[in-house]
Amino acid sequence: MAVNQDYALPCGRELETVWDRLDVGLDEHEVDCAHCRTARESLTALRSATQELADEPDPTPPDLFGRIMSAVRAEVRRGQMLELPAPEPGGVEVSEQAVAVVLRYAADAAGNVRARRVRVRKVGVSADGSDEVEVELTLAAHLGNTSGADTLARVRELVSAAAAARVGLALVKLDLLVEDVYE
Q1: Cα angle vertex 171, ends 157, 160, to 5°?
Q2: Residues 97 and 31 in one domain
Q3: 49 & 83 share domain
Q4: Contact by Cβ (8 Å): 169, 130
């Protein structure tokens, strides 16, 4: 471990030299020099304390209980599970919350809008066995957006494509609601 190389003891010897010689033993100068012996004792105590800290197990984080409870609450909030098309045998399920995240990302990609709240609700089952869903998406529009209808059409296109291609769900209804404006 390198220490500050610019620090010379009052006797003229560099502290780095004393550090490097901790495991070697005292030389002729250090035997007679009080400054070097004092520095050596301090560096030995520092090394010992550092080693004790390194050997100590990490304490339990004080917020561990809160983090566990947040994970439990998130599990509860994930919503109903939706069945996705999958090759036989077996099936694949995904939570409504996970689908909402994908659709929110798709809406944000349209530009001039920000997705706020996404509600996904199962309403039926399609011919291929995947769930059919209705989506309600609330948006905030950019204040300078002069092409609102075109922007909403782009949001509708991107969200519908994401539901089909990225998730594999049949989107039977998509309600868009602009409820806020941002600068």
Answers
A1: 15
A2: no
A3: no
A4: yes
Provide the 3-class DSSP secondary structure of residue 171: strand
What tokens does 10 get? 């009052």
Q: How far apart are CA 176 and CA 49, in angstroms?
A: 62
Same structural domain, 86 and 141: yes
| Beta strands 81-84; 131-142: pairing state | unpaired
The whole-model pTM stands at 0.56
- Quick: pLDDT tens for 75-98: 556 668 888 777 767 777 888 888
Look up the domain containing 130 and give its range: 79-182
Residue type, 65: F
What is the per-residue pLDDT across 114-166, written as a single tens digit (0 to 9) for each?
998 889 988 888 777 678 899 999 998 888 777 778 889 999 999 999 998 88
Alpha-carbon gap, residue 92 to 50, rounded angstroms: 51
